[in-house]
Amino acid sequence: MNQANLVKANAGQTSHRRFYGHGIPRVQLEDLAGKLIVVEGADGSGRSTQIARLVDWLETSGHATVQVGLKRSTLVSAELDKAQEGNILSRTTLSLFYATDFADQLENIILPALKAGFIVLSDRYIYTLMARDMVRGMDEGWLKNLYGIALEPDAVFYLEVGAEELVQRNLSKKAALDYWESGMDLGLSRDMFDSFLKYQMNMQAVFRQLQKIYGFTIVDGNRSVETITETLWGKIRALLAEK
Amino acid sequence: MKTFAELNFPGRLIAVEGLDGSGKSTQIYLLKRWLEAEGIKVYFSEWNSSELVKSATSKGKKRELLTPTTFSLIHATDFADRYERHLLPLLRAGYVVLCDRYVFTAFGRDVVRGCPPEWVRAIYSFAAQPDLTFFFKADLEVSLNRILEGRPKLKFFEAGMDLRLSSDPYESFRIFQGRILEQYMAMSTEFDFVVMDANQNVETQQTAVRKLVSERIDLERFRRSSPLPLPPAMQRTNKVEEMEEDSAA
Lengths: 243, 249
Prior knowledge:
The complex is a heterodimer. By secondary structure, chain A is an alpha/beta fold.
């Protein structure tokens, strides 16, 4: 590769930012100086623990951080909670409600924070939303169009933990399994324990499928907290050194 | 986009579309009264009325939190909720469903707000086409005057103020409505709108509406075996309320 090509390739690298689809109108991608880091995984996969440790480490190292996650928007989080309590929304509605929640945080928190040079840590992202819907039989093409608004993150880590291990972790933490995380609405089994296992296995299969499309990093979440943190730090350090 | 008839639903869906102030809500209300009096199984649903989603929408509007994207998505959520929980089961049960605004409202408004047309249309791709869509086409000035005379205070999103078309709400409303009208006209052929001359008086329009409905839909099939008394929730609905809700969008 000669010098001119090398320069071009590097230039291409710095403006690698893109939306998955048409994105959000009037956003200048090159202005988004910060980094968007996503941690994905089921409840009990260690997501929150890892994010807390990352925030600690990043802030101690002098980086400003912002955290976002599912169902945290000002616009619809309360209504979404209420809807789920009563389990009264059908699947397209629930899907669009979650998409609204996501879009609100994307436009009002994620994009402005990136513009201000913050490191945004997202506790789950569109992949969980898509996987949940795909497990429920919704059309992948429809979901891809819907989430064409999403910004491609700088890094996505999927903490993969076996279904049996997830059961143990959830039970030791709350002594109960969550209705939605058990996929009880799907009628996989009347037995919550069985349903949880089946649902989480389905989710993992879909995540593997999504990984092929979106190319995120699968992290073995069965290891110790410290070992996982080391893995994440290593990757993020490299990412931060890029600029 | 297939109609409910083409999809072999026993029920039929009739939608009205038009600008704020085109008189469409009055027309569909009168159509509903007639069908009820005829003993037809009829259900009325209006844009932006799902109980659960509504509180989020009105919060978003009051606090001016909505962007073109979230505006579009929250209305799609509202529509999906009504569609899946009410419209579909009723259409399966052989009702005539009347909709004050349907997906075309989103196709028009969201696109004017800058959302890509393909994105909006694909989101609503779960919805079938109405069996009959009336588009009430009034002169822009007539619609504007009806709204501007009656209620001089325009709401932020209603006036399209989020588009920064003009700092004057009235001027903004005019430009915004004009652009939506263009969108409607562009959709008219594609979605087989029955274009009604909304400059005519109420009675003339209603006569035409009823005639067309009875020609296009075999109403005998939707008659109750014996007329039922109206449930209280339906009696409560009155015209004034509908007009207000409509332009709250």
